[in-house]
Each structure stands twice: as C-alpha cells, then as structure tokens.
Task: structure prediction
Amino acid sequence: MFFFGNKFYVIFISIWIIALYFIVTTFHSISNNDKSSEKRIEFLQNELNLLRQNYRETQSNPSSTHYLWEELKHELTRVKRQLIDRSGAKTIPKQVPSLEYEQLRRKIETQARELSYFTNNELQKISEKLSENDKFKWKQVIERFNDQSRVLLASIRNLTNVDGYQSWREYEHKSLSKLMQTRLNSLQNPSKPCTDVKRLICKINKDCGYGCQIHHVMHCFHIAYALGRPMILFSEGWQYNRGGFDQIFQSPSHTCNTSMAYNVSIWDQNETADVIEIPSADFLKSLKDFMPMAIPEDVSERLIRLHGNPFVWFTGQLMKYLLRPQAWLTQFLEEKYNTLKFETPIVGIHVRRTDKVGTEAAFHDISEYMKYVEDYYIIYKYQNPNINVSKRVYIATDEPLVFDDARTKYPDYIFYGDKSVAKSAQVNSRYGTESLKGVLSDVHFLSLCDYLVCTFSSQICRIAYETMQQRTIDGAWRVQSLDDVYYFGGQHDHQQRAFISHKAVKSKEFSFERGAIISAEGNHWNGFSKGSDKANNQSGLYPSYKTEEIVRIAQMYHYSEINPITGSVQHSPTGLTDACYDKADSHFVTCAQNGNIYVFDRNLDLVKRIRCDGPCHCIAVHKRSLFVGTKANELEVRSFPGGDLLQNSDYFNEPVSASAFCLSNSSVFIGTRDFKIMMMN
Result:
C-alpha cells in the first residue's frame, strides 16, 4: 500500500528528471554554418596522421615505454578535437565562452548531482518501511531513477565536447599555468640579490604526517605569493628524509637559501620586517583577506571562467612549482608507471584504515567507494557508447587487506596498486625515505586518474585532487568525497550565497532569505548541508541546491614584470610623456618617447602596444576610440583597445590642434588651429 501511496511522488521525480534531461541535451545547440581555414584543416590532418604513425610505431616497438604510449594517445585525442573544431564538422568554433555560460554549465551538473543525492536518500528511507514484496518493486524504481540520473550526467558532461569551446579551455589552461609558473619562478628567484628583498621562511617539520606537512608549506607559499616575498624552506632533518626536501624535490629557489634567513621576526609580531617566519596556521592570531581560500584578484575573472573550483586550481599551481621532482624521482615514477601498465580511463580510490579511523575519520567499507566507481563507469559508457572499456581502479591504502577484499568482491574490475606501499604506510613504518617514496607514488597515480573517490578529511586525498588539476581541464567535478567537502587548513569561513529562499520544514533545518550568506560546515551527500547564517544567528541543516559557492577574491602582489597574455617577463617603457585612464574599461593608457602607446589593465599588466609615427604627447579615450596627438601636432583617432587607425586630421576638413582637446561624458571637444572648437559625439 505504501508503494502505491507514493506513486505520485515517483511520477513527479521522473518527470522532473526527464524535463531536466531534455533541457540539457538541447542546451546551446546551434546550427553549423561556419567554414574554417582549409590550410589549418590540412595542417591538423597532417599532424593527426603523423601522430597515428608514431603511436603505431611505439606499440610495435618493445623498447618504447608504456608512459610514451599514453602521452601519444592524449596528444592524438587533442589533435582530433582541434580538427573537428576547425573543420566545423560537429561544432562551431568560438573564441571565448561567456562567464555566465561556463557557470551555468557547471551549475547544471551540481544541481543534477544534488538531486540524485536527495532522491536516492529519500527513496532508500521509504524502502526501509516496505514489506519484502514491495521492496523488490521499489528497488526497481530506485534503479530506474539512478539510471536516468546517469544518462543526465553523461549528457551534461558531453556538453564540453560539442559546444565548440574546448580548444579555448585547453589553451586557457596552458596559458594561465604558464603565467603562474613564470610568476612563481620570478618570485623565488628575484632579479635583485636575495638579501636586498624582503623574504619569508617556512619550516617543514611540523609534528604531523606528509600530507599535513606539505599543506603547511603550501600555506606558507600561498602567503609568500600574496606578499611578493620569496620563500626560503627549512627542511634539514626532515623526518621523511634526513637529507632534506631538496634531495626529493628541486630547490624552491636558486638564489635564496637558508644562510640568508637571519634577524627573523614572527609574522604576527612584525609584519614589515625584512625576514618573517610563518608559523603553523593553528597559531596565527588573525586571517588576512588574501589567505586561503582566496585567489588573486588580477587573474580571478579568467580563473573563475576556466575552473569550477578556482582555489583548488590555484593551489595546484603552487604545488606544481614547489613539488618539482628530482631526476631520480621522475625516473622512479616512470618505471613504476611502466611496471603497473597504468592505463586510462581509471578511477582512483584512497582508503584509510589505520590511525585516523575513529578519530579524524569514520570507517568506510569498500562498497561505499565502489558505488561511485560503478557510477563513473556507467556514465562514461553513456558518454562513449562505441568504446569498450575495461573497468580499472587504482587503490591507495594503508591497509594491505583492502586489495584482497576488493578483488574478492568485485572480480569484474582490474585493480592496480602496491601492497608494499600499503605496508610502509602503516603507523610503525610510516616515516623514512622508503615510506615517502610509497606516498609519492600513490599521490602521483591518484592524480593521474580520471576520477577520485576518497575522504576529504584525508590530506593525501586533497593533495591528489589538487595535483590532478595541473593536468585536467576543469577537473573540479572529478571527485566524490565520502565525508567532508574540500577544505584547506587555516582557511577563512567556507561561504555560500543563497539564490533561493528557504523556509525550514523540519526542526533541524533553519530558514533564510535569498541573498543570505551561509557559512557552510559540510555536505551530508543526502541533499542537505550543514551550516549557519551568522547574520541572523541561525544554524542547522539546509537544502544544498538552494545555495552556490562564493569565490573569495583578494588583492595580492602584482607581478607587473610578467606579461599576463604571454606569461613572459616584460620590461616597462621609459620616457613617458602623457597618460590617461579609461574608467569604463579599466584601462590605463600611456605614451612613450620611443613612439609607442602602451595600454595596461587596472593591475598595470601590459595588454597592448601600439606603434605610432614618433613620440605622442596628448591622449584620451572616448567611446571605444583613442585620441592621439602626434609629433606633427596632428590628431589621430584609433580603435580602442585594438589601436587600428580610424581617422587623422584630414577627416576634419581643417587643421586641428592635437594638444587642445577635452572630454565630457558624451562628447569630445577639439580645438582647431584657427581658434575654433569642434565637437564629436
């Protein structure tokens, strides 16, 4: 009876899913009427053929490494996608997706996942109250719902393959990464002697495990980036390697070392000292605006457009620089890659069993992990119906018995991993170089996986997720945590904004209005999150789907010597003669005696250089036009910020004085040589 009493509920949910499915599958569908350059297509076709040939050669050559095969496969996929984009066969090439489009695309996936969490939880609660006969029928309803949810997610994830923007995403990912790595290299290796710049020191030997220590150093490095101070790392006697950090990873700096860390002040006590030490986040007295989880304001718009979790991407870039492996470690990981015969697609699971269970984390059976592994592979199959896929799982754990348990219960899966690493990760043998090699190996292979299932209460899980972002294009969604949401030790409040009002239904919930700022404490993965509305002194549970993440943005050090477009070191112009600022476009424009006009953004990063005929002495910006006075006292009108010449003095039918013009809100007034005033709207 209960089953049929809930028939309307099931029908409603089904209609909801079907409607959302049709919305998403038709989202951004545009007819193809654009033709690309034939030469570009021919070039890509030749590159594709060459890659195919190289790939076949590596497969037939026993001496070729498995690692190289995988690299060629990825490159082959990239070129195929570019070929499709350029030829217009399946997609329409576009330059840059709007911020709103990228945010909406991600929001649809988040909402679909939250709907699945909630509905599954509610259906399971109903199932527990049914008779055994009705439970069987109800199980079919649950399975049907789950299957339609997976089809929906497959359609959402395939949007990036057909919307025409994937080539831009790949380019922007590489461009931003290059910019960040150049900035970090410039930060850590200043052009001045290191003793002449303000610097920061950090000590790795915090009383905790590897993941905790690395995140402590990352916390220091985040502050170093924000302040523009090179970080000097103290690691002598490191419990994981007595010889220090530099024997495992490349030195953070070629010019700044521990001998330059003298007259040290604790940051909280003297922030302006030449040399400051960053204590553990646990002991900081206050949080600055730029501290985690903030991202730099000058790249925030690009980063929010590119990635679903901008801070994770930013942290991944800091980690990419800091954890550059020594040559021996690169070789060790490559040999292990070939020994494992590591292949994709593959899902990584990190299973904690020893010291943290019962204190920092709860016990999770292997079935809890494999539920989401199975979901991933079914969705992958729906995304790629013509591909036969072996279901692979990489296991990282501190309990060797997990391997036997997984292989016994899930014989249709191929499990990768190393029992010896699991043994070395146990409490009695955790510290030392051999144990460290095992941890590094696990983190490396977890980060190479296509999807992660782990517990965010684990530092290793979070490091693997952060490292994954260095390789994937917007990999924010490629994880399922069994406990916490992502966090960073010592962070500001995790804030969300309510975009739908909520009225509490149950006693454990709290109400809020649209626009309320919620301090999120965790997601229960059942449709509800826990948090508080501090402004109204309320706390409890709330529907996760009614809020959205707030990205914390903060002013940090401006790396003005690095070109934000090319990611290369640039030099400032000399001999400036005149300047103006366009408030509407946030551009600062200046002329130089070398005959160039320099256009900077609001962070004083060079955006455009326009060459003029000799020095210019008077400039202004009005309605997307740039007015330039030349050395011959002529007036030129150029497009802004492009710089193309639109008009010169001949346009005005009489001589004008380039040094006599001014702007109002809607017009530009120009003085002529015979003492007349002309007005342009």
